[in-house]
Design brief:
The chain is mainly alpha-helical and 386 residues long. The protein has 16 helices and no strands. It is globular.
């Protein structure tokens, strides 16, 4: 998050003062990076979703099944909460400025003069489409949960997942700040920076407020089920929240989340099963951010907001994000397939989504892991005696 903020702050003055040839260097990089994302996204889908589903299918026991159902239900309900909240608030909060801010995507203030164009582009199309990758990944993942001779294939998929994770953590995430820098350099050069930054700041503040409301709701529900005061429970889990702000990773925060869940009165055996599983399947904070950002980008692009389409998007996104790795930005990379195939996002829209998401990555991860504590409290009430 810090590097993205620095990229934005540096990109704005660079766009105002850089000569055209210097700006075109970064636009050339952005074009190549965008094409690379298009190429690697289907591979990310296959590498993350197939082994992720296969591993979850091997989790035995009624308690784990209940945990997964609660986690998925929480994630999907959060998507609807974000959708209807943003659809209601954005028109009043952002007004017409959001479409004005997005105008540079479709036309660009300097498009006619061809000042800001890349020096060159390289086209390397993906090996297969995102929807084909999604269907193939589900077929492999579900198939491996029911066959007994799938261990060799599973080892291959796990190895491929390691490669994908290294690509995300070692290539994509480190280069994203430079990509964001190029985006805001172009925005500033085209004279749109004031409108865009105003929109971005309002979106970030609104999403943060929605995460606060979400966490209070989750712990109120947990408190009602467990017959405990929800606010001490939430206060206890804030240690995990603060830790996740620094790590930006649900997986890296598991030890702290586990420790705080036990302090909330969760049986250590229950917490030891529920917390690691929720780190993978409970992504309510990520769902809130992606849904809210998707609506904002669609309004920028002038795309229609069809409620029926968004319902399908939310249900499918809840499943797809199970594959999100425990690395910063993993959820948005896993969600790109659904954004493209269901909502029709193009490369420019995906670039804006990634920019918005990464700028708030810590808050979403912190919301995820803190909410894991609420689910652990509910599951503990249901199964601790067993």
């Amino acid at each position: 998050m810090g590097r993205v903020a620095i990229a934005i702050l540096l990109g704005i003055p660079s766009g105002l003062f850089f000569p055209a040839w210097a700006a075109r260097i970064f636009l050339t990089f952005n074009g190549l990076f965008s094409n690379f994302l298009d190429f690697v996204v289907p591979l990310i889908i296959l590498g993350l979703i197939a082994p992720g589903i296969a591993e979850l299918g091997k989790g035995a026991g009624k308690m784990l099944g209940t945990t997964m159902a609660l986690a998925y239900g929480s994630t999907v309900l959060t998507g609807f909460f974000a959708f209807f909240s943003c659809k209601l608030v954005y028109p009043f909060l952002l007004g017409e400025t959001i479409q004005e801010a997005g105008a540079f995507i479709q036309t660009g203030a300097l498009a006619d003069s061809q000042v800001l164009t890349p020096f060159f582009t390289l086209d390397f199309p993906p090996l297969f489409g995102v929807m084909s990758a999604l269907v193939f990944a589900f077929m492999l993942g579900l198939g491996l949960t029911v066959i007994r001779t799938g261990e060799p294939l599973m080892q291959i998929l796990v190895g491929f997942r390691d490669i994908v994770n290294k690509t995300i953590s070692g290539v994509i995430i480190p280069l994203l700040p430079l990509f964001v820098y190029g985006i805001f350099l172009k925005i500033a050069a085209e004279g749109q920076v004031g409108k865009v930054m105003g929109v971005f700041i309002k979106i970030v503040i609104l999403i943060f407020l929605l995460t606060v409301i979400l966490l209070v709701f989750q712990f109120v529900v947990a408190g009602i089920v467990a017959k405990k005061n929800p606010f001490p429970l939430l206060r206890t889990m804030l240690t995990a929240y603060v830790t996740a702000l620094g790590t930006q990773s649900s997986a890296a925060t598991i030890p702290v989340t586990l420790q705080q869940a036990v302090k909330c009165g969760v049986d250590p055996r229950v917490a030891g099963s529920v917390i690691p599983l929720c780190a993978t399947v409970h992504l309510s904070g990520s769902m809130l951010k992606i849904t809210a950002c998707a609506i904002a980008v669609m309004m920028m692009m002038g795309m229609p907001l069809d409620t029926t389409v968004f319902i399908g998007f939310i249900f499918l996104l809840g499943i797809t994000m199970v594959a999100a790795p425990g690395v910063p930005g993993g959820a948005i990379m896993a969600a790109v397939a659904v954004l493209q195939s269901v909502l029709g996002f193009n490369a420019e829209a995906i670039g804006l989504m990634i920019t918005l998401y990464i700028a708030m990555d810590s808050f979403g991860t912190a919301c995820n892991v803190t909410g894991d504590g609420a689910i652990a409290v509910i599951v503990n009430k249901m199964y601790a005696k067993d």
